[in-house]
Amino acid sequence: MTHSPAPLRVVQWATGTIGGYALRSVHAHPGLELAGVRVHSPAKVGRDAGELAGIAPIGIAAVGTLDEVLALRPDCVLYMPLAFDADEVCALLAAGSDVVTTCGLFHHPASTEPALRERVTAACAAGGSTLHSTGSSPGFITEAVPLVLASIQRELTGIVIDEYADLSRRDSPELLFDVMGFGREQTAVSEFLAPHMLSSFGPSLRLVAEALGLVLDDVVAHAELATARTEVRIAAGTIPAGTVAAQRITVNGIRAGTPLLTFRATWYCTPDLAVDWPIGDTGWHISVRGDAPMEVDLRFAVPLERMAAVSPAFTANRAVNVVAAVRAAEPGIRSSVELPQIIPRLG
Q1: Where is the chain membrane-spanning (predicted)?
Q2: What domains, with CATH codes, occur in the chain?
Protein backbone atom coordinates (compact mmCIF):
# COMPACT_ATOMS: atom_id res chain seq x y z
CA MET A 1 0.00 0.00 0.00
CA THR A 2 1.31 3.44 -0.91
CA HIS A 3 0.71 6.48 1.27
CA SER A 4 0.30 10.00 -0.02
CA PRO A 5 2.68 12.48 1.58
CA ALA A 6 1.23 14.81 4.18
CA PRO A 7 -0.20 17.99 2.63
CA LEU A 8 2.09 20.99 2.69
CA ARG A 9 0.91 23.66 5.11
CA VAL A 10 0.45 26.97 3.28
CA VAL A 11 -0.34 30.45 4.57
CA GLN A 12 -1.95 32.87 2.14
CA TRP A 13 -0.49 36.34 2.69
CA ALA A 14 -3.01 39.00 1.49
CA THR A 15 -6.47 38.45 0.08
CA GLY A 16 -6.73 40.97 -2.75
CA THR A 17 -7.77 40.05 -6.26
CA ILE A 18 -4.95 37.55 -6.84
CA GLY A 19 -4.52 36.55 -3.21
CA GLY A 20 -8.20 35.72 -2.82
CA TYR A 21 -8.08 33.50 -5.88
CA ALA A 22 -4.93 31.79 -4.60
CA LEU A 23 -6.61 31.19 -1.24
CA ARG A 24 -9.47 29.34 -2.92
CA SER A 25 -7.04 27.31 -5.01
CA VAL A 26 -4.99 26.29 -1.97
CA HIS A 27 -8.12 25.28 -0.06
CA ALA A 28 -9.21 23.01 -2.94
CA HIS A 29 -5.74 21.59 -3.68
CA PRO A 30 -5.32 17.88 -2.83
CA GLY A 31 -1.68 18.30 -1.81
CA LEU A 32 -1.91 21.53 0.17
CA GLU A 33 -3.46 22.50 3.46
CA LEU A 34 -4.50 26.07 4.14
CA ALA A 35 -2.81 26.74 7.49
CA GLY A 36 -3.72 30.40 7.83
CA VAL A 37 -4.40 33.73 6.17
CA ARG A 38 -2.64 37.05 6.78
CA VAL A 39 -4.62 40.24 6.08
CA HIS A 40 -3.71 43.91 6.29
CA SER A 41 -7.05 45.58 6.91
CA PRO A 42 -8.10 45.64 10.60
CA ALA A 43 -11.66 45.07 9.40
CA LYS A 44 -10.64 41.67 7.99
CA VAL A 45 -8.79 40.39 11.07
CA GLY A 46 -10.72 37.58 12.72
CA ARG A 47 -13.03 37.01 9.78
CA ASP A 48 -13.35 33.55 8.28
CA ALA A 49 -10.92 32.97 5.40
CA GLY A 50 -13.63 31.45 3.26
CA GLU A 51 -15.79 34.52 3.63
CA LEU A 52 -12.86 36.73 2.58
CA ALA A 53 -12.34 34.59 -0.53
CA GLY A 54 -16.01 34.51 -1.49
CA ILE A 55 -16.62 30.87 -0.61
CA ALA A 56 -18.30 29.03 2.26
CA PRO A 57 -16.72 29.38 5.74
CA ILE A 58 -13.75 27.05 6.26
CA GLY A 59 -13.05 27.56 9.96
CA ILE A 60 -9.84 29.56 9.64
CA ALA A 61 -9.78 33.06 11.09
CA ALA A 62 -7.59 35.64 9.36
CA VAL A 63 -4.69 37.06 11.36
CA GLY A 64 -3.10 40.48 11.16
CA THR A 65 0.53 40.15 12.27
CA LEU A 66 3.76 38.54 11.18
CA ASP A 67 4.21 36.90 14.59
CA GLU A 68 0.87 35.11 14.23
CA VAL A 69 1.96 33.74 10.86
CA LEU A 70 5.31 32.57 12.25
CA ALA A 71 3.49 30.79 15.08
CA LEU A 72 1.66 28.68 12.48
CA ARG A 73 5.02 27.30 11.25
CA PRO A 74 3.89 26.99 7.61
CA ASP A 75 5.86 25.03 5.04
CA CYS A 76 5.27 27.81 2.54
CA VAL A 77 3.83 31.32 2.43
CA LEU A 78 2.16 32.61 -0.71
CA TYR A 79 3.29 36.21 -0.38
CA MET A 80 1.02 38.51 -2.44
CA PRO A 81 0.80 41.98 -0.83
CA LEU A 82 0.62 45.25 -2.73
CA ALA A 83 4.24 46.04 -1.83
CA PHE A 84 7.23 43.85 -1.01
CA ASP A 85 8.56 44.13 2.56
CA ALA A 86 12.04 42.67 3.00
CA ASP A 87 11.73 42.55 6.80
CA GLU A 88 8.64 40.34 6.56
CA VAL A 89 10.02 38.04 3.90
CA CYS A 90 13.39 37.59 5.58
CA ALA A 91 11.69 36.77 8.89
CA LEU A 92 9.60 34.08 7.17
CA LEU A 93 12.62 32.60 5.39
CA ALA A 94 14.84 32.64 8.48
CA ALA A 95 12.11 30.81 10.39
CA GLY A 96 12.17 27.98 7.83
CA SER A 97 9.14 28.84 5.69
CA ASP A 98 9.54 28.85 1.93
CA VAL A 99 8.12 31.88 0.14
CA VAL A 100 6.44 31.94 -3.26
CA THR A 101 5.72 35.51 -4.28
CA THR A 102 4.07 37.33 -7.15
CA CYS A 103 6.23 40.37 -6.32
CA GLY A 104 8.58 40.26 -9.28
CA LEU A 105 11.90 41.17 -7.70
CA PHE A 106 13.59 37.79 -8.00
CA HIS A 107 12.84 36.35 -11.47
CA HIS A 108 16.53 36.69 -12.28
CA PRO A 109 18.46 36.70 -9.01
CA ALA A 110 21.53 38.32 -10.53
CA SER A 111 19.38 41.34 -11.50
CA THR A 112 18.09 41.82 -7.96
CA GLU A 113 19.52 44.80 -6.09
CA PRO A 114 22.71 43.39 -4.49
CA ALA A 115 22.01 44.37 -0.87
CA LEU A 116 18.50 42.87 -1.03
CA ARG A 117 19.76 39.72 -2.74
CA GLU A 118 22.44 39.21 -0.10
CA ARG A 119 20.00 39.77 2.73
CA VAL A 120 17.44 37.33 1.35
CA THR A 121 20.11 34.75 0.57
CA ALA A 122 21.35 34.96 4.17
CA ALA A 123 17.81 34.47 5.49
CA CYS A 124 17.37 31.41 3.26
CA ALA A 125 20.64 29.96 4.57
CA ALA A 126 19.59 30.56 8.17
CA GLY A 127 16.22 28.84 7.74
CA GLY A 128 17.12 26.27 5.10
CA SER A 129 14.36 27.84 3.00
CA THR A 130 13.68 28.86 -0.59
CA LEU A 131 12.29 31.97 -2.28
CA HIS A 132 10.74 31.97 -5.76
CA SER A 133 9.12 34.77 -7.79
CA THR A 134 6.46 33.76 -10.29
CA GLY A 135 3.40 34.96 -12.14
CA SER A 136 1.82 35.01 -15.58
CA SER A 137 3.44 38.14 -17.03
CA PRO A 138 6.30 38.30 -16.24
CA GLY A 139 6.77 34.62 -15.54
CA PHE A 140 4.76 32.12 -17.55
CA ILE A 141 4.76 34.03 -20.83
CA THR A 142 8.32 35.40 -20.55
CA GLU A 143 10.02 32.30 -19.16
CA ALA A 144 8.08 29.02 -19.38
CA VAL A 145 6.64 29.55 -22.87
CA PRO A 146 9.75 30.87 -24.68
CA LEU A 147 11.90 28.11 -23.20
CA VAL A 148 9.45 25.46 -24.44
CA LEU A 149 9.37 27.03 -27.91
CA ALA A 150 13.15 27.26 -27.96
CA SER A 151 13.41 23.55 -27.16
CA ILE A 152 12.93 22.67 -30.84
CA GLN A 153 15.43 25.22 -32.15
CA ARG A 154 19.11 24.84 -32.97
CA GLU A 155 19.45 28.29 -34.48
CA LEU A 156 17.58 31.14 -32.80
CA THR A 157 17.67 34.69 -34.13
CA GLY A 158 14.81 36.14 -32.13
CA ILE A 159 11.68 35.72 -30.02
CA VAL A 160 9.05 38.46 -29.88
CA ILE A 161 6.28 38.20 -27.29
CA ASP A 162 3.33 40.50 -27.90
CA GLU A 163 0.86 40.99 -25.08
CA TYR A 164 -2.50 42.54 -25.95
CA ALA A 165 -5.08 43.79 -23.46
CA ASP A 166 -8.40 45.28 -24.53
CA LEU A 167 -9.40 47.47 -21.58
CA SER A 168 -12.62 48.82 -23.06
CA ARG A 169 -14.84 46.73 -20.76
CA ARG A 170 -12.68 47.24 -17.64
CA ASP A 171 -14.83 49.32 -15.27
CA SER A 172 -11.89 50.78 -13.35
CA PRO A 173 -11.81 54.54 -13.97
CA GLU A 174 -9.18 55.26 -11.30
CA LEU A 175 -6.79 52.69 -12.75
CA LEU A 176 -7.32 53.59 -16.40
CA PHE A 177 -7.59 57.36 -16.19
CA ASP A 178 -5.64 58.35 -13.06
CA VAL A 179 -2.90 55.72 -12.94
CA MET A 180 -2.40 54.66 -16.56
CA GLY A 181 -3.26 58.02 -18.11
CA PHE A 182 -5.86 57.03 -20.69
CA GLY A 183 -8.09 59.88 -21.80
CA ARG A 184 -5.35 62.47 -21.16
CA GLU A 185 -3.08 64.52 -23.38
CA GLN A 186 0.03 62.65 -24.45
CA THR A 187 2.30 65.10 -22.65
CA ALA A 188 0.43 64.51 -19.39
CA VAL A 189 1.03 60.76 -19.27
CA SER A 190 3.67 59.73 -16.74
CA GLU A 191 7.13 58.81 -17.96
CA PHE A 192 7.27 55.85 -15.57
CA LEU A 193 5.98 53.39 -18.21
CA ALA A 194 9.29 52.41 -19.83
CA PRO A 195 11.39 52.26 -16.62
CA HIS A 196 8.67 50.26 -14.86
CA MET A 197 8.41 47.73 -17.66
CA LEU A 198 12.20 47.51 -17.94
CA SER A 199 12.52 46.58 -14.27
CA SER A 200 9.56 44.18 -14.47
CA PHE A 201 10.39 42.30 -17.67
CA GLY A 202 14.12 42.83 -18.19
CA PRO A 203 15.11 40.20 -15.60
CA SER A 204 12.95 37.54 -17.29
CA LEU A 205 14.55 38.22 -20.65
CA ARG A 206 18.02 37.99 -19.12
CA LEU A 207 17.10 34.72 -17.43
CA VAL A 208 15.88 33.10 -20.64
CA ALA A 209 18.87 34.31 -22.66
CA GLU A 210 21.33 32.94 -20.11
CA ALA A 211 19.48 29.62 -19.96
CA LEU A 212 19.93 29.37 -23.75
CA GLY A 213 23.62 30.26 -23.54
CA LEU A 214 22.99 33.60 -25.27
CA VAL A 215 23.89 36.22 -22.68
CA LEU A 216 22.42 39.65 -23.43
CA ASP A 217 24.63 42.70 -23.82
CA ASP A 218 21.90 45.08 -22.67
CA VAL A 219 18.18 45.40 -22.00
CA VAL A 220 16.40 48.60 -23.03
CA ALA A 221 12.80 49.81 -23.08
CA HIS A 222 10.74 52.52 -24.70
CA ALA A 223 7.09 53.56 -24.56
CA GLU A 224 4.77 54.83 -27.29
CA LEU A 225 1.32 56.39 -27.01
CA ALA A 226 -1.54 56.44 -29.50
CA THR A 227 -4.60 58.69 -29.48
CA ALA A 228 -8.24 58.02 -30.31
CA ARG A 229 -9.36 59.18 -33.76
CA THR A 230 -12.86 59.86 -32.43
CA GLU A 231 -14.49 60.07 -29.01
CA VAL A 232 -14.79 56.62 -27.44
CA ARG A 233 -17.15 55.49 -24.70
CA ILE A 234 -15.76 52.63 -22.61
CA ALA A 235 -16.97 50.98 -19.42
CA ALA A 236 -14.82 53.26 -17.26
CA GLY A 237 -15.93 56.50 -18.93
CA THR A 238 -15.21 58.61 -22.00
CA ILE A 239 -11.98 59.00 -23.94
CA PRO A 240 -12.11 62.25 -25.96
CA ALA A 241 -10.80 62.32 -29.51
CA GLY A 242 -7.11 63.17 -29.61
CA THR A 243 -6.32 61.82 -26.13
CA VAL A 244 -4.41 58.70 -25.15
CA ALA A 245 -6.33 55.55 -26.05
CA ALA A 246 -3.50 53.01 -26.34
CA GLN A 247 -0.03 52.39 -24.93
CA ARG A 248 2.72 50.23 -26.37
CA ILE A 249 5.78 49.50 -24.26
CA THR A 250 8.64 47.50 -25.74
CA VAL A 251 11.42 45.81 -23.78
CA ASN A 252 14.31 44.59 -25.92
CA GLY A 253 17.06 42.21 -24.86
CA ILE A 254 20.01 43.16 -27.05
CA ARG A 255 22.72 40.79 -28.25
CA ALA A 256 25.38 41.73 -30.81
CA GLY A 257 23.60 45.02 -31.50
CA THR A 258 20.17 43.61 -32.36
CA PRO A 259 17.13 42.51 -30.32
CA LEU A 260 17.26 38.82 -29.48
CA LEU A 261 14.35 38.68 -27.04
CA THR A 262 11.49 41.19 -27.06
CA PHE A 263 8.47 41.69 -24.84
CA ARG A 264 5.95 44.21 -26.18
CA ALA A 265 2.78 45.13 -24.31
CA THR A 266 -0.04 46.85 -26.18
CA TRP A 267 -2.84 47.98 -23.88
CA TYR A 268 -5.72 49.70 -25.61
CA CYS A 269 -9.23 51.05 -25.04
CA THR A 270 -10.17 51.07 -28.73
CA PRO A 271 -8.59 49.76 -31.96
CA ASP A 272 -9.67 52.96 -33.74
CA LEU A 273 -6.37 54.80 -33.27
CA ALA A 274 -4.69 57.69 -35.02
CA VAL A 275 -1.66 55.47 -35.74
CA ASP A 276 -1.51 52.13 -37.53
CA TRP A 277 -0.58 49.66 -34.81
CA PRO A 278 -1.24 45.91 -34.99
CA ILE A 279 -4.00 45.27 -32.45
CA GLY A 280 -4.73 41.73 -31.32
CA ASP A 281 -7.38 40.20 -29.12
CA THR A 282 -6.64 40.01 -25.41
CA GLY A 283 -3.88 37.45 -24.94
CA TRP A 284 -0.42 36.78 -26.33
CA HIS A 285 1.24 36.27 -29.70
CA ILE A 286 4.72 34.78 -29.86
CA SER A 287 6.89 34.97 -32.95
CA VAL A 288 9.92 32.66 -33.04
CA ARG A 289 12.62 33.25 -35.62
CA GLY A 290 14.99 30.31 -35.97
CA ASP A 291 15.57 27.14 -37.91
CA ALA A 292 12.13 25.96 -36.69
CA PRO A 293 10.15 29.23 -37.03
CA MET A 294 6.72 29.54 -35.44
CA GLU A 295 3.88 31.98 -34.90
CA VAL A 296 1.85 31.10 -31.81
CA ASP A 297 -1.36 32.67 -30.53
CA LEU A 298 -2.52 32.25 -26.93
CA ARG A 299 -5.90 33.93 -26.60
CA PHE A 300 -7.94 34.23 -23.43
CA ALA A 301 -11.21 32.48 -24.24
CA VAL A 302 -13.20 34.72 -21.92
CA PRO A 303 -15.69 37.50 -22.73
CA LEU A 304 -14.18 40.89 -21.91
CA GLU A 305 -16.95 41.48 -19.37
CA ARG A 306 -15.64 38.49 -17.38
CA MET A 307 -11.91 39.17 -17.68
CA ALA A 308 -11.66 40.96 -14.33
CA ALA A 309 -13.11 37.89 -12.60
CA VAL A 310 -11.10 35.29 -14.51
CA SER A 311 -7.72 36.96 -15.10
CA PRO A 312 -6.43 36.47 -11.50
CA ALA A 313 -6.27 32.73 -12.23
CA PHE A 314 -3.43 33.24 -14.71
CA THR A 315 -1.14 34.57 -11.96
CA ALA A 316 -2.49 32.89 -8.83
CA ASN A 317 -2.61 29.33 -10.14
CA ARG A 318 1.03 29.20 -11.21
CA ALA A 319 2.06 30.33 -7.73
CA VAL A 320 -0.08 27.61 -6.13
CA ASN A 321 1.13 24.95 -8.56
CA VAL A 322 4.81 25.65 -7.87
CA VAL A 323 4.64 25.26 -4.07
CA ALA A 324 5.68 21.60 -4.00
CA ALA A 325 8.63 22.20 -6.34
CA VAL A 326 9.83 25.12 -4.24
CA ARG A 327 9.55 23.04 -1.08
CA ALA A 328 11.74 20.37 -2.67
CA ALA A 329 14.32 22.84 -4.00
CA GLU A 330 17.69 23.66 -2.49
CA PRO A 331 17.71 26.67 -0.13
CA GLY A 332 18.21 30.09 -1.69
CA ILE A 333 16.61 32.28 -4.33
CA ARG A 334 15.54 29.91 -7.09
CA SER A 335 14.50 31.03 -10.57
CA SER A 336 12.17 29.16 -12.91
CA VAL A 337 15.11 27.62 -14.79
CA GLU A 338 16.36 26.03 -11.55
CA LEU A 339 13.04 24.35 -10.80
CA PRO A 340 11.56 21.35 -12.60
CA GLN A 341 8.77 21.74 -15.13
CA ILE A 342 5.68 22.84 -13.21
CA ILE A 343 3.06 20.11 -13.48
CA PRO A 344 -0.11 20.84 -11.49
CA ARG A 345 -1.62 18.21 -9.23
CA LEU A 346 -5.30 18.31 -10.11
CA GLY A 347 -6.57 15.16 -8.49
Answers
A1: none
A2: 8-134+322-338 (3.40.50.720), 140-302 (3.30.360)
